[in-house]
User: Fold this.
Amino acid sequence: MIFTTLLEPYRYPKIVPIEVTVLRGARRLRLAIPLRRKYSDFVPKIWNIMAKLGYQKYLQKIYVSIDFDTPLLSPYYQLPIVVAILEAVGMLRLRHNIYSIGRFMADYSLSYPLYPARELSPFPGLFSTELEQGEKLEQYLNHIHTASKELFAPIYPMNELFPGVAFKENQIDFCKTPLSLLKRIPETTFQESSLQITYRHRPLSEQKLQLLQTLPHAKIVALLHKVCFCEKNPCICTKAELALHDEQLQFLKEYNH
Assistant:
């Protein structure tokens, strides 16, 4: 089986399999709904690649699916889709489960999103191969035939996957991230993440409090606060500011339990 990494804006990377089903029938290649928006124009190129490699089984219906529930936008699923199809139709036989990610350039050479790897893949026995920018598909296929390097999960920079979002110790900084960007982050990402809320100098806006109320599964792991907004001794906050401070602080404490 072929695995790849989901690289989608404002979501944490996730390694998933690409599943291909082949049935008898008039030649057709159908993509799962999450792939159709970005990859419908890629289908003719897939047929062209397969024809160049000698594909002649015209009485086959091919269905490609991936474990995701919203449209996929990254171009780097092109290579694993092609490799998964080649394996499913019998044009490629692999000794191991293979990790693959990359896209085709205009001349059919390959481009990869190369980032450092630190931790073992959550899928034992998942293998990868050395990648060379600009290599041809035939070279890549020869490499994965003899792949013997167990995959280390790539570490993707948060500033690339979460443009504009502030992070603190790999946790979303809820106060420093603009509201417009917080609204673009899917609820599933908040469920997988934790929030840092540095509660000082100014209250949370009403809009951010309302957003928190719509995220019942988010977790606040660090709530930094003082006795008032001004943090001065003696305090110069007004009674209204002190009341607002206590009200919001109580809301956040109750939210976290």
Observations:
- The domain at 2-150 is CATH 3.30.230.10 (Ribosomal Protein S5; domain 2).
- Residues 129 and 144 are 6 Å apart (CA to CA).
- The chain has two domains: 2-150, 173-255.
- The chain has a mean pLDDT of 86.
